[in-house]
Amino acid sequence: MAAGTIAISKPARRPSGSALAWIGVAPFFLFATLFLILPTAFLIIGAFQDADGHFTLVNLTDLSQPTILAAYKISLEISAASALGGALIGFALAHAAVSGGLPAWIRPTLMTFSGVASNFAGVPLAFAFLATLGRTGLVTWALMQWFGFSLYATGFNLLNFFGLTLTYLYFQIPLMVLILTPALDGLKREWREAASTLGASRGQYWRWVVLPVLWPSLLGSTLLLFANSFGAVATAYALTGSSLNIVTILLYAQIRGDVLHNQNLGYALALGMIIITGVSNVAYIWLRGRAERWSR
């Protein structure tokens, strides 16, 4: 080095913003690959194999068995009933909290409760309903002791179609509130003022302005509730055991049961569920995109 010269070191190259962003989402892709993509691929492959690993279509043809068709039918009915009920009640709650003129503390309280209740499922939820509305539950006992009213004498049963649908509503309604509240917030006050200026009644405003704007969110949210209910297994199994023949319980019996054990048929059942829930979720994503374009 010549005398009098100063060595200047180059600064260390920092990773670009895009590189840091990819590092940030790497755990998500790893999680999705390990717990979603690979298990789904394993189920799809298993649906087309026999017990020895050979290719077969028998598992798919066995889905036409009356017991399996009945399980899909009742699962679809419960999912549709809980989705529609959750959508209607959840929409009413969300609308009341957003634009119903209620006290200001109602909305944050409702949103906090909805965030907790929408994730309250499985064995704890089943136990809560049994302790509340079971044959020896608190509400059942209170109605008999205080009013002489026997809830189960009316034909009510927590372990049948109606009881499971009612249980599912506990997490379906809060989920609808959480999804639909941002859509209701997107309704601009100027639209209501313009409609009033033009002489539109409240009913006409809802018919010609609100519902056309909200229908993608309403329909998409209902489809999401349908998929959410259709894939639920822990709550149904803990609540009804094997007394209600829904597809998730039948799938569990085929994969892990001692009597109905047929692992590859269980994979075929799971493939059918993946198709149904996949179509519902794709439709929800498409409808959500339409709703977001309206809000912009």
TrEMBL record:
**InterPro entries from the UniProt entry:** MetI-like, MetI-like_sf
The places in or outside the cell where this protein is found are: Cell membrane
Top-rank taxon of the source lineage equals Bacteria
One family name in Pfam for this protein: BPD_transp_1
PROSITE patterns in the cross-refs = ABC_TM1
**What GO cellular component is one of the record's annotations?**
plasma membrane
Topology term for the membrane: Multi-pass membrane protein
Domain ABC transmembrane type-1: from-to ranges: 72-286
Q: Is Oxidoreductase a UniProt keyword of this protein?
A: no
Similarity comment: family membership: Belongs to the binding-protein-dependent transport system permease family. CysTW subfamily.
List the PANTHER family: INNER MEMBRANE ABC TRANSPORTER PERMEASE PROTEIN YDCU-RELATED, INNER MEMBRANE ABC TRANSPORTER PERMEASE PROTEIN YDCU-RELATED-RELATED
| Entry protein name | ABC transporter permease subunit
The organism encoding this protein is: Siculibacillus lacustris
